[in-house]
Amino acid sequence: MKKIICTESYIKGKEEINHYASFIIEPLDSGQSITFGNALRRTLLSEISGYSITGIRINNLRHEFENSNQIREDTLEIILNIKEIIIKGPLFLRNRNFKSKIIVMLSVDGPAIITAGLLNASIKKFSNFLNIINPSLYICTLTNKSKFHLELDITKSKGYKIAEKSKFINLQTLMLPLRPCTILIDSIYTPVKQANFNIKKINDTKGNIKESLCINILTNGAVTPLKCLKESLKLLLELFFPFFLDSNFLILYNKLRLRKNNKEND
Questions:
Q1: Long-range contact list for 38-43, CB < 8 A, 24+ apart?
Q2: pLDDT tens-place string over residues 214-234
Q3: Nearest-10 Cα torsion for 237, 241, 242, 243
Q4: 179-213 burial by CB neighbour count: b if 16+ within 10 A, else e?
Q5: What gap in Å lies between CA 263 and CA 258, rounded to an integer?
Q6: N-term to C-term CA, the chain
Q7: Alpha helices in 27-143 (DSSP H)
Q8: Helix runs in 67-194, H state only
Q9: CA 225 to CA 195: how far, in whole Å?
């Protein structure tokens, strides 16, 4: 009987981010581990969904190369800091009224130090199921008594998406010339930072040579490695299961299974 065993699990960092876990799946027949491991690794790295910031609006800035005198950091540095924000939310939202994009707004009077924790309080006003798990992340510093207004666009997707800036900014500039432009940024949705596997030979209770598949998963803390592994297995099942509902496929499957049983009996 095949089983999954968690052999190692710990958390790196002070803010409970970077969750690591190692799992062993055994016993597998010879050659099955490489097939199963590659499928799991590809699914873990590209198919697990997550939340990310896709657009930023800061005061009345028109683009990322324009800076504000009231802010110590330049706009590009603020964008890099915001991209480090990790947003935690549920994997499944079938029973929730989730919009395709959540807009989070923050207004602060300076002088002040802006951290992700201030955004966390603002997020809860717009959504009760999203949370920033690195609230002490530094964003910027207001140097004088001025207004700082920040808007973030948060969406849910999977993988990595590059922002298509030029077309969107040109259209926005023509239609809304008096509003600050949205600075689009590249978005990393997947919570899985690393996924790899290794294979070793083992013997089952009958002395037969089998294989043991060890999968190592590192996430950004938004989702635990165990949840990512379960979700990847579910996605693979959803990929292959529809074939078994096809009558033609079932007929072919039964013929192949009967042929295999006849060879074993011979």
A1: 39/236, 40/195, 40/197, 40/215, 40/229, 40/232, 40/233, 40/236, 41/195, 41/196, 41/197, 41/215, 43/232, 43/235, 43/236
A2: 999 999 988 899 999 999 999
A3: 130
A4: ebbbbbbebbbbbbbebebebeeeeeeeeeebbbb
A5: 9
A6: 25
A7: 32-46, 75-83, 116-126
A8: 75-83, 116-126, 165-175
A9: 10
Instruction: Please give the Cα distance from 143 to 153 (Å, whole number).
Output: 26
| Cβ atoms within 10 Å of 152's Cβ, excluding its own | 21
The number of angstroms, rounded, from the C-alpha of 264 to the middle of its chain's C-alpha atoms is 45
Q: Is 24 exposed, middle or buried (0-12, 13-18, 19+ CB in 10 A)?
A: middle
d(CA 36, CA 152): 39
Q: What contacts 170, CB < 8 A, 6 or more positions away?
A: none
Question: How many Å apart are CA 241 and CA 104, to the nearest integer?
Answer: 39
Q: Is the peptide bond before 111 cis (omega within 30 degrees of 0)?
A: yes
Q: What is the pTM of this model?
A: 0.78
Separation of CA 230 from chain center = 14
DSSP state of 117: H
Host H or E run for residue 259: helix 247-265
Determine the distance from the C-alpha atom of residue 108 to the mean position of all C-alpha atoms in its chain, rounded to a whole number. 29
111-139 confidence digits (pLDDT tens): 889 898 888 877 877 667 788 888 888 99
Residue in this structure with the two tokens 């790196």, named with its chain if needed: 12
Other beta carbons within 10 angstroms of residue 224's beta carbon come to: 16
pLDDT-derived band at 96, boundaries 50, 70, 90: very low
